[in-house]
Amino acid sequence: MPRIMRRDRAPARSQADAIDSAQAVVEQLRDQWRKSPQVAQLLAELHDYGRGADLRDCAALAECLTSTTAATRVLAPLFVTMGQALRGHPLAHVPLRHQFAHGVCVLELMRAGQASLSLMD
User: Fold this and answer.
1) pTM of the model
2) Bridge partner list, 119
3) Is residue 101 scored above 70 in pLDDT?
4) What are the distances in angstroms from CA 103 to CA 96, 99, 121?
5) What DSSP assignment string belongs to 54-99?
6) Which residues have CB under 8 Å from 32's CB, separation 6+?
């Protein structure tokens, strides 16, 4: 008669819980960033732009696209807090759509309707 061994699943559950907890932290930071007044305005203008608004009518979006200073002002809070969170929760992953293919990196910061705002390198 074959002998059946039972494995303790507690370590796997514990690791899954740690991953879920870590992911929840970085997702909450992303959501808080998106709700900040400056980013919320940018998201609203991105939505308008995706629905056909002229970029000249989307002042915050236009400024973010044309000024390194404006873009840094919007992105720095996300990158600083996200970097700190990932250091403290190494099992989490960046909660933004991202990809690397053929030497090109893309990080989608936000999507609204038919428009998205991404960083590319």
Assistant:
1) 0.80
2) 107
3) yes
4) 19, 10, 8
5) -GGG-HHHHHHHH-HHHHHHHHHHHHHHHHHHHHH-TT---SS-EE
6) none
